[in-house]
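Anyone able to model this chain together with NAP?
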Amino acid sequence: MKVALVGIGKIAVDQHVPSIAASDEWELAATVSRSGTVEGVPAYTEIDTMLAENPDIEVVSLCLPPVPRFDYAAACIKAGRHVMLEKPPGATLAEVHALQAMADDAGVVLFATWHSRMAKGVAAAKAALDGKILESAHIDWKENVRKWHPGQDWVWEPGGMGVLDPGINALSILTEVLPAPVHLRSGVLQVPANRQTPVSAELKFTGNVTASFDWLKEGEQTWTMRLTATDGTAVQLKDGGNRCFVDGEEQPEAELGEYPALYARMADLVRTGRSDVDLAPMVHVSDIMTLCEREAAPAFEW
Ligand code: NAP
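re: yes, here you go
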């Protein structure tokens, strides 16, 4: 299948391009980006030109930040192409609902991807908790924004989500592995005085689920989750969901890595004509933005 990549920046270069190149199912047939390109691949700067000149490209994968993504997705769906959305799938819930309705009307596939759900230990954690009752859970998602998003000012703008941009990855895992849904009870966001979005978050959900997100963590980076069921089952996810321990014992990991697994899933969705749009992680982020207290934090500079 031919795929076009849109928004040739950090994640496109780090993950999408190598995952497509390593797959027998996919061919990177074009890029659309205002300045980014991929060597040897026809490059466009306008989405409409790429769509008009390449009727054989069935799938478009959008790697732009969330705010500009909607117009590109709408243009692709209107042109009858299947669409893959990077996480978070949009800047607002309503715009993703709109894309879903447009895709259904056009008879094309829409895949709202959650790469962390494809981390190698997530399926084992889900299986270990299946049919159980959760007693408690805690998430620590602590990383250094300067290392992982150097100079990306959009993360501090409205719709950029701040620390909830990585935090939504944790929430995508949580909503995948929990045996029953939870919802936010309260929380505190720290927002740098000169920015629009939070740099840290302390969150309390129903079901004794708590989360601690920090975007200024120096040294060791922490992406871990502990979940305990009422029957005593203890599940621990480490390395962003890539390692799973049940009652202290490490579980066999999934074969494919996160992005190769996303492209394998997209190929399957296109073959079977099904969309996959689960907005549960984004509903939590929207609730966090609605319900949490705000505290002023020191100004953030790169
Ligand atoms: P990025 O490098 O800052 O942006 C990707 C590309 O999008 C840019 O290089 C730019 O390419 C284009 N772009 C940026 N703003 C635009 C605008 N207003 N209009 C049109 N094009 C624009 O961002 P990223 O880190 O790759 O993240 C993109 C998405 O992937 C985000 O939703 C993020 O949450 C997700 N993601 C990121 C990571 C990560 O580690 N960075 C990991 C997983 C998922 P041109 O200037 O060439 O147009």
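The mean pLDDT is 98.
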